[in-house]
Amino acid sequence: MTDKPIMIVKASGQTEAFKIDKLEASLRNAGANEETIAMISADISSWISEGLSTRKIYARAYNLLKSINKTEASLYKLRNAIMEMGPSGHPFEVFIGEIFKRWGYAVKTAVVLQGASITHEMDVFAAKGDELSLAECKFSAKQGTSISIQVPLYVHSRVADIVEKYLEDDDNKALRYRTWIISNSRFTPDSIQYSQCKDIRLLGWDHPRDHGLKHIITEEKIFPITVLNALVKSEKTALMARGIVTCLQLSQNPGELNRLAMNRRKQATVSKELDNLLNS
Description:
Number of helices: 13
Mean pLDDT: 93
Strand order of the largest sheet: 3-4-5-7-9
Largest sheet: 5 strands, mixed
Strand content: 15-25%
Low-confidence stretches: none
Radius of gyration: 21 Å
Shape: globular
Distance between the termini: 34 Å
Helix content: 40-55%
Order of helices and strands: EEHHHHHHEEEEHEEHEHHHHH
Number of strands: 9
């Protein structure tokens, strides 16, 4: 590479200077060793040119990593795997519900609640002890999107209406109510500022910093089934339609593979990939 920065195009359409250390960090986060990182970095550095999209750069790095280690490649494609849970946002809501369950909550998804004025559908309704969490999930099947101020504005008013109704019952007055907005994309600065003022908890792909959705997924090993290389799209769709959205769920319910009319050899391949992911 020359000293002059090579400008690449982000998913949002904006341009930025290509930084090899950013690529290396993403490979390292996926578990790639230093030898693999060096090999892929050298390939990308010699191949990259002005105006390439981050999507093309990612695809090349992913294919190189997949040829070396499929498990690490699965982790590298994590963000794309979340987007592949669409186009409907419901599997993402169930996925977020599984995260709350891991945190010890009793969870319901897509639940209709009566407010003081009208009824509201909440994507995730989670209870633990004296805490009641109500979460709005905003799923995006595209990179480069951000959650604007309109979302926390209307979520705040909806939850306030629900809490007002709950407080009519004296037994609910001792509860602590928490509002969440959870997304696989990012938040605009004004949506973050408003949410901080209104005590709304935001969980985005990389927000809060070092404890965003990406961090939680990898730390808790709550991987979406869409990361699995051994499954084709139709098989993933069929599983998600039955509420199987995480690799752990599939691992705990191996009979689901029989319902896909999958032969034993492929079942063994899927099981091995699950084991490698969950025990990596």
